[in-house]
Structures are given as C-alpha cells and as structure tokens.
# Entry
Amino acid sequence: MLNRPIHALFERMLLILAALLVVMTVASIVFLPHYLGPDVTLYTEVGQKLLDGQRPYVDYEENNFR
# Structure
C-alpha cells in the first residue's frame, strides 16, 4: 500500500466518500418519514397555503394554533 502513488489513494478515498454519501442519502430518504413529528404536516399545509397567496387568519385559520 505504501508503494502506490498518493493520487491513487486519494481517488480511493474519494470513491469511498462518494459511496458513503450515497448510502447516507438513501438511508435518510427511507427512514426520515418515520421520524417526522405531527407538526410537520401542519407546517407543510400552512406553507403551501402561503405559497398559493393566501393570508393567515384572513383566508384560512388553523385550529391547531389556538
């Protein structure tokens, strides 16, 4: 291993890091929905209404905020 050029070791480390990044991304996509709390759907719905141009407490009112 010491006889290999330094760039070959760098390429191997880069390949390992890329593989690790892919594994972590796939794991987060698969397991993340199981860890989301109940407030996420509320914030998603309110955010979508805001992006659609609706105004809070004028065009809609959320019962969960009371």
